[in-house]
Amino acid sequence: MLNKLQQQLVHLVCSEEGASRADLARLTGMSKPAIGALVKELLAAGVLQESAMAASSGQGRPSVTLSLSPDAACAIGISLIDHQLVVVLMNGIGEKMAERHLTPEVEIPALIQQLAAEIADLLSSAAVNRQRLAGIGFALSAFVDAAQSVCVQSALMGWHQVPLAELLSRATGGIPVVIENDTRALATYEKTFGHLRKYQSAVAISHGSGIGSAAVIYGRIWRGAHGGAGRNRPLHNRAGG
């Protein structure tokens, strides 16, 4: 388990592509020796790895950049959108290791058992030890209270106030579970691993049976005063366009 300072450094390495020890010291305000000690711990634990040499802006030697190790951990991603259920196993840098497409069970208890069985089979098939699994992320087209890990309302599934994270964590033997609105999950992924890494503020838009948006403002997901910013709205087709 990483402490808060280590978690902060890992987050910065993810969000600041090509960061060096000097960059981390500048961004955190910590001394270079303190950053060096923390990085040494994370390298020894296999969480970070040293990457390419960054060109020096001065007369000194080029800096060694840091990146997240693909083997540091694994995670399960679940997507439930438009009655399509996808379960994905990813490595520490967001690359897919395995993927399953399923027809979701309708009733909540049956769906939870379906997911628990699929996750166990996915880990077994990929020969991944459960100890490497950092957690499960569950994205769905719904109004989600991410702080309480509750699906407040899903018009698609007919759900109201469903504690999805608690139910799935219990069914998988205590694996940490985070649930999120699908568009916010997309924005979070792109900000961490994808096209939005270099932007402090951006908007992600998704469309399917509805249209939704998620705003990243100064590097953080904007949820609005009551958590409903960017909620999905249904699309209605009209004759003639």
TrEMBL record:
Gene3D superfamilies: 3.30.420.40, Winged helix-like DNA-binding domain superfamily/Winged helix DNA-binding domain. Belongs to the ROK (NagC/XylR) family. This is Making large colonies protein.
